[in-house]
Amino acid sequence: MPKTEKPKILVVNDDANSLFALTSLLTQWAEQESYEVLAARSGQEALRQVLMHDFAVILLDVNMPGMDGFETAEAIHQRARSADIPIIFITAFLADELDRLKAYQRGAVDFLFTPVIPQILYAKISVFVALAMKNEELKKQARQLSLRTTELTAANQKLTREIEERQSAERQNHAKDEFLAMLGHELRNPLSAISSAASLIGLPGVSADGVTRAKKIIQRQSQHLGRIVDDLLDLSRAMSGKILLNRAPLDLAALVAASLETYRATGRSADYQLEQDLDQGWVDGDATRLEQITSNLIDNALKYTPSGGRIEVRTWTENDDVVLSVRDTGVGIAADLLPHVFDVFVQGSSTLDRSQGGLGIGLSLVRRLADLHGGEVTAASKGPGGGSTFTLRLPRIEHQAAPAPQPAEAGGEHGLPSVLLIEDNDDGREMMTMMLGCYGYEVQSAADGNEGVAAAVRRRPDVALVDIGLPGIDGYEVARRLRADPATAGIRLIALTGYGLADDLRRVMEAGFDRHLVKPVDIDQLMEVIGACVPVPVKQ
Fold first, then answer.
1. What span, in angstroms and rounded, lies between the C-alpha atoms of 446 and 148?
2. Model-level pTM greater than 0.90?
3. What residue ranges carry the coiled-coil annotation (predicted)?
């Protein structure tokens, strides 16, 4: 701990003998009373000492040449730091009442007359030294109290933050638990429908119409499962920053119009008044991801708007932004929920949501996709029953004409291309072989990587559909070996994988594949990709 400084006493006298006598007298008691003695020969020197030190008391001669004691006292007390230093005037003359009044007006606390009586001097300075020591002790205690107060304040703030963080974590855990329960519900529903439909197909006596309906149910519910998985993966990728946008100039109004036409064609908006007012606005964006934003905003409006309600979809330009607005007349959003509607695991009415289905992560994905495009999305509502409005803003660009599409290359010498399917899952391999066969393709299959390479060398197919997660050697190694062999280097390679991150696409392309498809693969998409890899010649 730093050593506490002793109180200081300043003696001011222009007479050297008087100054020596006083300082010597005071020094006799300095060790006993624990103080220091300093001296000054003039008022100016006294002021310099006051600027450098704090004093418990000043013994000040009244009659000094130049700046006398009264002027010195007045100058000392004009300075804020030294204004409270007690001053004892020392004079050889008996001061009358006017002199005493003048001294007290200049800040004096007492008078001493020469010759000074040592006992009186000792009594007086002892009082002021004790007061100075007491004041210093009080200041020290005040500093310690202030430090302790600061520490307690910091500890209280830390405790408050910890309580808030714990409460936030508990809320998030509760929300995650609810989300997992909803996820289980959403997965079991389509799986139950698929299982029932598959069992119905195998029952004796089932009608042809029943088989057809069961097949449609399986197809529809499989697509629903695929959408659930896609939403989860997309949200995970967006939160971890692993979505890479395939940007191109596009008209947001045209994209929204195409989405709305899909809703009308599929009947999903049949029970609603769906109105649109779309003005052209060009942005630099990923068409697939912007379609996701649009669909999620419209799905949200449909989910929370009762049948017969109105949904208005508008696009327009505003300064440097292209704006998309989706307004509904639905259940609205409570004021306490409104700031959190884009947070992960946060939803509105669970009763309505469960009746409509869905995981409640669409708006979180919307916000993250908007951020990736350099835009923003906001929500507004008048409260329960007041409907909701979601507004997307994206940076506007000048209209850019799209490049003219290149004509397709001429087709092969024969009809449909031959296909090699390398897939280790027995059911998946059998189903895809049957589907491709139904479209007229000649399909050979292999159950692992080594068998697939051997089949490719032996059969020389036009196209090879290769699963990435194969036993023996994986799909990457299959592609590398086929590309390294001149006999198989010309085979078109299409990767089939459950991994859809940008890094996965990079690895697929670096291994030598021509295309990358993420499971589950839609048959129409597969036909399109195969046709693009090996165009079928048009018969003349």
1. 76
2. no
3. 135-172
